[in-house]
Amino acid sequence: MKQLERVKEFDGWLMRYSHDSACCHCEMTFSIYLPPAAKERPVPVIYWLSGLTCTDDNFRTKAGAQRYAAELGIALVIPDTSPRGDAVPDAVDRYDLGQGAGFYLNASQEPWSRNYQMYDYITQELPTLIETNFPVIEDLRSISGHSMGGHGALVCALKNPSFYRSVSAFSPICHPVASAWGKTCFQAYLGGDEKRWREFDATELLIDKAELLPCKIDQGTEDEFLADYLFPQHLVSVCEKRGIALNFMYRQEYDHGYHFVASFIGEHLAFHAQYLTSMASSNWE
Amino acid sequence: MKQLERVKEFDGWLMRYSHDSACCHCEMTFSIYLPPAAKERPVPVIYWLSGLTCTDDNFRTKAGAQRYAAELGIALVIPDTSPRGDAVPDAVDRYDLGQGAGFYLNASQEPWSRNYQMYDYITQELPTLIETNFPVIEDLRSISGHSMGGHGALVCALKNPSFYRSVSAFSPICHPVASAWGKTCFQAYLGGDEKRWREFDATELLIDKAELLPCKIDQGTEDEFLADYLFPQHLVSVCEKRGIALNFMYRQEYDHGYHFVASFIGEHLAFHAQYLTSMASSNWE
């Protein structure tokens, strides 16, 4: 693991590392913010998954989350959105496929399958790396994300309900098999068998009876992708039918961008803190 | 005035406009954040001046200031750092001269003098435009900035003590005539007469007996430009000699970047609010 950057922020440390990934067969980059509390004791972790075209830099620069993480005493781990590099397949004319668009799944199709194993990377390799190398509490993890990363956070949580304590999302792609983004990318990464697509689709996983952790979702009403790409109403409908609690809010007049995320990230981190910091306190006080 | 963008954030509105500038003889761009309070009544304004290479976008994206502005009920006005456009002179191989590097002065030398009138733009044309078109209180203005913009904020305040209520700066170029940045740029913009340079130099203005408004300055100790470019110790020394109050803080381990600004922008806006919002309340309650 190689430290690329270390910057003080809100009395904690924002750092960037690269490492050779066994899952993705390439060098991967992530950022981590350690709050000031981590100088004294291990802290819980929230994993943040970013959206299409992003790297680990967007969230740490634009969301204003470090202030809240510092106050709450929670670390933020911010991975890249896909494998990267000259040796990694890409679709250079597409923003929604290839590098920057890993969709947090395990690809089974050529040429993607060797590197595009983001689901295993996020749920296994990266947490192990973080828990081996930083002062974090192993069993106190939550996960959140935006757009494609909201999809990723929901899928990771639905498939690993005992691994995370809570999940949240901003403007998530809730039903990718019904969305042009999902259809074209799942076809490319997973092949033609739609049964395999459902394994990486939050709404389909819930139809298939997955259980939902404490979950908070915010969606802007002026989101330019809402009508054709996101389908939160499908997820809400399944939760209603199955009697599953879901903290879902439409936010009037907000769009899809990072100013929307910035406006509500404080509420999201406070939501996760309910499930992370009370347990952290009882472990360490 | 043409609206280029309008995004909801923290229940207020972040907007971007362009307009034909009479001072700068070109189209200028600025951003403005109106807090939710501005729906009900006029609000005070803080002008923010950014540093070298920035546009109006950096601060609004990276500093996390809108949250505090929303809470305090203060508008933020964020101009560009120079005139722009194909018809505007530039030094394409220099990041510290020409477009993106206006230094907030009135240039007198060719080829700069026609467009590079940023001092008049910031202290006259832009406030008039803002006060004519937005729900702001005319007499409640403060000014702040970062690096080159910290220099600009200090100079604007020192030269117009009755126009602003307070001033603050992050990592400002405190003594440009002693700095390589200042020397080369002041030479280019203002010519060889160093007496003219002192008119746009905070430390020199204070030596010449200018009065200082309530002023807060933060400076990171790990700032990569501190030793050779900023010279806050010169400003502090003049204030000490003249018995002028200055709220100056070295911040241990912080660098020159926007994560430093983000860490303390809340304290800066709260500092300005002392001089802006109590007066706003007495005017409007």
Question: Can you walk me through this structure?
Answer:
The structure is a homodimer of 285-residue chains. Chain A is an alpha/beta fold and 285 residues long. In chain A, 38% of the residues lie in helices and 23% in strands. Chain A contains 10 helices and 9 strands. Chain A has a 9-stranded mixed sheet with strand order 1-2-3-5-4-6-7-8-9, with helices on both faces. The longest helix of chain A is centred in the C-terminal third of the chain and has 27 residues. The radius of gyration of chain A is 18 Å and the shape is globular. The two termini of chain A are 32 Å apart. The model of chain A has no long low-confidence stretch (mean pLDDT 96). At the A-B interface, β1 and α10 of A face β1 and α10 of B.
